[in-house]
RNA sequence: GGGCGGUUAGCUCAGGGGUUAGAGCACUGCGUUGACAUCGCAGGGGUCACUGGUUCAAAUCCAGUAUCGCCCACCA
C-alpha cells in the first residue's frame, strides 16, 4: 500500500494545522494585497469599470457591526467584479459628521473639564481635526480587519480641499445661478441643547402620553364670556396672536371678529376663521402661536397675524413671556398651569397621545421656532430625481423601496441646510459691513452673560424623555448655551456668495466683509459624495472614467438622508445619475431580535467577534441567510456555524493537499470516470447559479449555493468517493486532478465572501503546483460556467447511486447492523446494470457491502428473498440477505407505509392526468414530468406489493 | 392618518405559481472508519397565520382579517 501523504514531506505539509486558525492567516494576506497594490484599479478605456463609493462609517471611532455589514457586502461585490476582470474601484472615505462629530469631541473635552467655548472656535476646530485624523486611522485599521479591498490611495474626507471645493461650488451655483438656495424666515426644528437648527429628517418623532389642556380665554370687554382652546403645550399661550375657528363652525360664528384676552399676560388677540381648523378636535377653537408651530405660522400668514417669539435659543422664555421670562419652557409650562388653575381658567386636562419631535443626535425635545435659515428649494431638484428612478436609470434593490423613495420625493419639502455649529463647511456667504452693517446684529455682551445664568431644569427634563442610548452629556449646560452664535443677520441683507472668499464688496468695494457664521448640514456634502470624491468640479480622469458609479450600497435607514439627496445633487451637478443601482441592506439585531445598543448591553463587537471566530466567519455569517432590505439577527450560533464551515473547507483542503505529494497533476481531460463528470457537472451548475445570483444581488443565496456544493457534494460525496479511488492505487485514473481542480475553482467562487481562508489555501496549492497560477486568488479569474460540462444524465446516475447507498445505510441502521460489518447485497438493476457496475466500488465502500452482486434481473437473488430485506428504489431493487435478522412484521409495516405513500401519490397524479384542463393548459414538460412520476410510482408500488405478498 | 414589511420545522431564517416545501441550530439513534468530533452516518419534526378569490395548478398571485415590526405625517 502506498500512502503518499503518510510521511511528512520536505515542505512539511503535515504541518498544516488540524483546525483553521484565522489569526495565523488574516493579517498577513491583507498586507500582501496592499503591498501588491491590488486594491488600486488600472484604468482601461476599453472596459467598463465597476465602482462603489463606500458610505463613510459612523463616527464613534469603534468598529460597529453596521459598518462591518456594509463593508462586507461591498467587498464581496467588489472582489467579484475585480476577479471578473472589470477595472474595479472601491473608494473609501470618511465624513466630518456635523453635529454627531462635534458632539463626540465635545464629550471628550468634557472629560478633560474643557468645553468648546473654553477653547474658542479656532482651538476647538484644531481638536476636531486632531480627533478626525485619529479616527481616519481607526477606519483604515477596520478595513484591514475586515479584509476590505478598498483603494486607500483614493481615500477622501468630506472636508478635504477637493470635496470642500465641490461644496462651495455647488452652493454658489445653486444660489447665484439656479436660485435654488435662499435665505428665509420659517418655522424650523430647533434643538435647544445642540443649539442649532435641524432639518425635518433629523427629528425623531416619538409617541408620548401627554396631556391635552383645555384653557379658557376670557373675551375682551366681556370677562364672563370665554372661548376655550385645547393645547398640549400651554407655555406657548404666551406667544399666541389669535384664536382660530373653522369658518363653518356654527358654534363660534358669533365670536369671529371679537377679541380674546390671553391669560397671564393680558394681551388681546383676535378670533379669526380659518380652514385649517378641524371643528371636531378639542373644542374646535385653536390657539395660534405663529412663532412656535408650523401650522399656526401658515394660519398667521393667511390671516396677517404677527409672530411673537417667546423663547431664546436655549428654549428659555424670553422677554416676550412677561413674568415667565428666564424660565425654562417646561418650568414655564408647570408654573403657567398652576396659575391657570388658580385663576379658574383651566377647564380640564385629559390624557393625550401625541407625537413629539426629538433631536436625532441628543434626544432633546425639539422646539419648533421661527428662525432665519438657509434653505434648498428641493422641488425642482426632485423632479429629475423622480424621473431617474421611474425610468429605471437608477434601480433600487429591493424593489419595494422604490415606492418609499418616490413617495418621499413627491412630497419633498425644502431642506434647511444651515446649522449653528462650528464643525462643518462654513457657508460661503459674506456680508459687506459697509452696505449691510445696519442689518447685522451682534448680540450685546450682557445678553451673552445672561444666557450663561441658567438652570439645568430643561436639560434634565430632556433626558428624562430621551432615549437611554444617548449618553447624558457632561458638557456644562451654560457652555452649550453660550455656544449659540450671537450674530443675527436680517433677511434684507444681501449675501455675497462665492466659491472663494471675496476680496471686496462688488457693490461698494468695501473690504470689511463678514462671513456667515453658520455651517452646512453635514448631509449637504454627503449629497455630493459620489462626484466630489472623484474630483468634480474639476474635469479629472477619475471623474470621467468612474462616474456614474455602479452601486450605492447602504442601509435603508439613510435612504432619504443620503441616497435621495445624492440622486438630486448628482443629477443637478453632473447631469447624470450618481449610481446605477442602490442596494439597501437591513439593520443588524441581536439574537433576540432587539436593536443593538450600549444601554441594552447586547452590542456584538465585531473586533471581538473577529478575534473569536475569524473575519471570514463573520463575513459568512453576515452574508448568508439574509436578503436585501431585511433586518438580520446575529448571534453566536450563526457565528459558530460559519466558523465550522471555514474549518470544514480547511480540512477538505488539507486532505487534498496532503495527497498531492509526488503526484504529477494533469489538467482533467479525456474520458473521465462518472464521479468526476458528476462533480464537474455540479461545479458548473453551481457556478452558473452563483453567477446569476450575484448579478441579481442575491449574495446570501449565492453563498448558500457555494456552501451546499462544498459541504454536501464535494466533501460528503466526492471526497469520500475519491478516497476509495486513491486507496485502489493503480486501478483506474486518479481523482487528484479533478479533486484539485474543483477545490481550486470553488475557492475562487468563494473568495469574494471569505477572502482570507481562500487565499491561504490557494497559496498553499500554488506552492505545490505553480503552473502559471496568478500570484493571488484575488486577481485570479472568477469561474465561468461551462454549459458543456453540465451533464444531466450523469447527475441522474449519481442520484441513483446516492439513493442506493442511503437506502442501504438506512436499512443497516434499522436492522442494527454493526457499522463496521460488511454485509452482502444484491442489486436487481435492469437497464441500469452497466451504469451501476461502474459505481460498484463506490456503493460497496460507502454502503459497506461485500460481496456486491449486480444483476439485470432477479436471477440468483430469489432464493433468500423471503429472508431478505428488499429496498424498492427507482427502477432497481436492493436485496440485503439478512438471514433471520429480519423482523417480518416490522418489514411489512415499513413496506405498507411506503405503499400507502405511493398510492396517495398515484391517486393525485392520475386525477391530474385525467383533468382535461390540465392537459390542455399546463406546459408539456410539466405534464411529461407527472407522467414519468406516475410510471415510477406505479412501478414501485407493484414491486412493494409483491414484496409484501412474499413476506 | 397614510404606507411598507413579517407571520414557513422547537428556535433563527431562506425560498417562492408546477416533484415529496429547504438550511443552520436544537432534538433522537449510531459512530474514536487516516481531511475535519468545529466531524460523520441515519432519523424525527411543517395544514407555509386565518378567510375568501384568481388559476389546469397557490405556501407562492389578488382581496380581506388577525397579529408583530418598521417608515412617513403640520393629531392643536
Q: Can you offer a commentary on this structure?
A:
The chain has 951 residues and is α/β, with parallel strands linked by helices. It is built from 31 helices and 31 strands. The chain has a 4-stranded antiparallel beta sheet. A 4-stranded mixed beta sheet has the order 10-11-9-12, with helices on one face. Strands 29-28-31-30 form a 4-stranded mixed beta sheet, with helices on both faces. Strand 7 and strand 8 form a beta hairpin. The radius of gyration is 37 Å and the shape is elongated. Residues 1-13 and 448-484 have low confidence and may be disordered. The protein binds one RNA strand of 76 nucleotides through strand 8, strand 12, helix 7, strand 13 and helix 10.
Specify Rg, calculated over alpha carbons. Answer: 37 Å
The percentage of residues in β strands lies in: 15-25%
Poorly predicted regions are: 1-13, 448-484
Oligomeric state of the chains present here: single chain
Q: How many beta-strand segments?
A: 31
Main β-sheet: number of strands, strand sense, barrel status? 4 strands, antiparallel
How many separate helices?
Answer: 31
Secondary-structure content class: alpha/beta
Share of helical residues: 40-55%
Lateral arrangement of strands in the main beta sheet = 6-5-14-16
Amino acid at each position: 500500500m502506498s500512502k503518499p501523504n503518510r510521511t511528512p514531506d520536505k515542505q512539511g505539509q503535515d504541518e498544516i494545522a488540524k483546525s483553521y486558525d484565522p489569526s495565523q492567516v488574516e493579517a498577513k494576506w491583507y498586507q500582501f494585497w496592499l503591498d501588491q497594490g491590488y486594491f488600486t484599479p488600472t484604468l482601461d478605456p476599453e472596459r467598463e469599470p465597476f465602482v462603489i463609493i463606500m458610505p463613510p462609517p459612523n463616527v464613534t471611532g469603534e468598529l460597529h457591526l453596521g459598518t462591518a455589514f456594509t463593508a462586507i457586502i461591498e467587498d464581496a461585490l467588489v472582489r467579484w467584479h475585480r476577479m471578473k476582470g472589470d477595472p474595479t474601484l472601491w473608494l473609501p472615505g470618511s465624513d466630518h459628521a456635523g453635529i454627531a462629530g462635534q458632539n463626540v469631541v465635545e464629550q471628550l473635552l468634557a472629560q478633560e473639564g474643557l468645553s468648546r467655548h473654553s477653547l474658542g472656535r479656532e482651538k476647538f476646530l484644531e481638536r476636531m481635526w486632531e480627533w478626525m485624523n485619529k479616527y481616519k486611522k481607526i477606519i483604515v485599521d477596520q478595513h484591514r480587519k475586515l479584509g476590505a479591498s478598498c483603494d486607500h490611495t483614493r481615500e477622501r474626507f468630506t472636508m478635504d480641499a477637493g470635496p470642500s471645493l465641490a461644496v462651495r461650488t455647488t452652493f454658489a451655483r445653486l444660489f447665484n445661478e439656479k436660485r435654488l438656495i435662499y435665505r428665509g424666515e420659517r418655522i424650523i426644528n430647533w434643538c435647544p441643547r445642540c443649539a442649532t437648527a435641524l432639518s425635518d429628517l433629523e427629528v425623531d418623532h416619538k409617541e408620548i402620553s401627554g396631556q391635552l389642556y383645555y384653557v379658557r380665554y376670557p373675551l375682551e370687554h366681556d370677562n364672563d364670556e370665554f372661548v376655550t382652546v385645547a393645547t398640549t403645550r400651554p407655555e406657548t399661550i404666551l406667544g399666541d396672536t389669535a384664536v382660530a375657528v373653522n369658518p363653518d363652525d356654527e358654534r363660534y360664528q358669533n365670536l369671529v371678529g371679537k377679541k380674546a384676552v390671553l391669560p397671564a399676560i393680558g394681551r388681546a388677540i383676535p378670533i379669526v376663521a380659518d380652514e385649517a381648523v378641524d371643528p371636531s378636535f378639542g373644542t374646535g377653537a385653536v390657539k395660534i402661536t405663529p412663532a412656535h408651530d408650523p401650522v399656526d405660522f401658515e394660519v398667521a400668514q393667511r390671516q396677517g397675524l404677527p409672530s411673537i417669539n417667546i423663547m431664546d435659543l436655549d428654549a428659555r422664555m424670553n422677554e416676550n413671556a412677561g413674568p415667565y421670562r428666564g424660565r425654562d419652557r417646561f418650568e414655564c409650562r408647570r408654573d403657567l398651569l398652576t396659575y391657570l388653575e388658580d385663576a379658574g381658567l383651566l377647564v380640564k386636562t385629559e390624557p393625550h397621545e401625541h407625537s413629539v419631535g426629538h433631536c436625532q443626535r441628543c434626544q432633546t425635545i425639539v422646539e419648533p421656532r421661527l428662525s432665519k435659515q438657509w434653505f434648498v428649494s428641493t422641488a425642482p431638484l426632485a423632479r429629475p430625481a423622480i424621473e431617474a428612478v421611474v425610468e429605471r436609470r437608477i434601480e433600487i434593490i429591493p424593489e419595494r423601496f422604490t415606492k418609499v423613495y418616490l413617495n418621499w420625493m413627491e412630497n419633498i419639502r425644502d431642506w434647511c441646510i444651515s446649522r449653528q455649529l462650528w464643525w462643518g463647511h462654513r457657508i460661503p456667504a459674506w456680508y459687506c459691513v459697509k452696505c449691510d452693517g445696519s442689518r447685522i446684529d451682534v448680540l450685546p455682551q450682557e445678553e451673552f452673560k445672561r444666557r450663561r445664568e441658567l438652570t439645568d431644569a430643561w436639560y434634565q427634563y430632556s433626558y428624562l424623555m430621551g432615549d437611554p442610548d444617548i449618553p447624558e452629556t457632561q458638557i456644562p449646560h451654560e457652555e452649550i448655551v453660550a455656544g449659540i452664535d450671537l450674530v443675527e443677520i436680517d433677511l434684507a441683507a444681501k449675501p455675497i456668495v462665492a466659491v472663494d472668499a471675496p476680496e471686496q464688496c462688488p457693490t461698494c468695494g468695501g473690504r470689511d466683509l463678514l462671513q456667515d457664521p453658520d455651517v452646512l448640514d453635514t448631509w449637504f456634502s454627503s449629497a455630493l459624495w459620489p462626484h466630489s470624491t472623484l474630483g468634480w468640479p474639476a474635469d479629472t480622469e477619475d471623474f470621467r472614467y468612474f462616474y456614474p458609479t455602479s452601486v450605492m450600497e447602504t442601509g435603508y435607514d439613510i435612504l432619504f438622508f443620503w441616497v435621495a439627496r445624492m440622486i438630486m445633487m448628482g443629477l443637478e451637478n453632473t447631469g447624470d445619475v450618481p449610481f446605477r443601482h442602490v442596494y439597501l441592506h437591513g439593520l443588524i439585531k441581536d439574537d433576540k431580535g432587539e436593536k443593538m445598543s450600549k444601554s441594552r448591553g447586547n452590542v456584538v463587537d465585531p473586533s471581538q467577534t473577529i478575534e473569536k471566530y475569524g473575519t471570514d466567519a463573520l463575513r459568512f455569517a453576515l452574508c448568508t441567510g439574509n436578503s436585501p432590505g431585511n433586518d438580520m439577527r446575529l448571534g453566536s450560533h450563526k457565528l459558530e456555524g460559519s466558523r465550522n464551515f471555514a474549518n470544514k473547507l480547511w480540512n477538505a483542503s488539507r486532505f487534498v493537499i496532503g495527497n498531492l505529494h509526488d503526484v504529477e497533476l494533469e489538467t482533467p481531460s479525456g474520458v473521465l470516470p462518472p464521479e468526476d463528470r458528476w462533480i464537474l457537472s455540479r461545479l458548473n451548475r453551481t457556478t452558473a447559479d452563483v453567477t446569476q445570483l450575484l448579478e441579481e444581488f442575491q449574495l446570501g443565496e449565492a453563498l448558500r449555493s457555494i456552501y451546499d456544493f462544498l459541504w454536501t457534494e464535494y466533501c460528503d460525496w466526492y471526497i469520500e468517493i475519491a478516497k476509495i479511488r486513491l486507496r485502489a492505487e493503480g486501478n483506474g485514473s486518479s481523482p487528484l486532478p479533478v479533486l484539485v481542480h474543483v477545490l481550486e475553482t470553488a475557492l475562487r467562487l468563494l473568495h469574494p465572501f471569505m477572502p482570507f481562508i481562500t487565499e491561504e489555501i490557494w497559496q498553499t496549492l500554488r506552492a505545490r503546483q505553480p503552473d502559471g497560477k496568478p500570484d493571488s486568488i484575488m486577481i485570479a479569474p472568477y469561474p465561468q460556467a461551462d454549459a458543456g460540462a453540465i451533464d444531466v444524465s450523469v447527475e441522474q446516475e449519481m442520484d441513483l447511486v446516492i439513493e442506493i447507498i442511503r437506502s442501504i445505510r438506512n436499512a443497516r441502521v434499522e436492522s442494527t447492523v454493526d457499522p463496521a460489518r460488511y454485509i452482502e447485497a444484491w442489486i436487481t438493476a435492469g437497464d441500469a446494470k452497466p451504469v451501476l457496475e461502474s459505481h460498484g466500488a463506490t456503493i460497496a465502500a460507502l454502503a459497506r457491502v461485500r460481496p456486491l452482486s449486480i444483476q439485470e434481473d432477479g436471477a440468483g437473488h430469489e432464493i433468500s428473498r423471503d429472508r431478505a430485506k428488499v429496498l424498492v428504489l427507482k427502477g432497481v431493487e436492493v436485496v440485503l440477505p439478512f438471514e433471520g435478522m429480519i423482523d417480518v412484521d416490522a418489514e411489512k409495516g415499513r413496506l405498507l407505509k411506503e405503499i400507502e405513500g405511493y398510492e396517495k401519490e398515484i391517486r393525485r397524479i392520475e386525477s391530474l392526468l385525467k383533468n382535461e384542463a390540465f392537459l390542455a393548459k399546463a406546459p408539456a414538460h410539466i405534464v411529461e414530468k407527472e407522467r414519468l412520476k406516475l410510471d415510477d410510482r406505479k412501478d414501485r408500488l407493484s414491486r412493494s406489493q409483491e414484496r409484501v405478498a412474499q413476506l
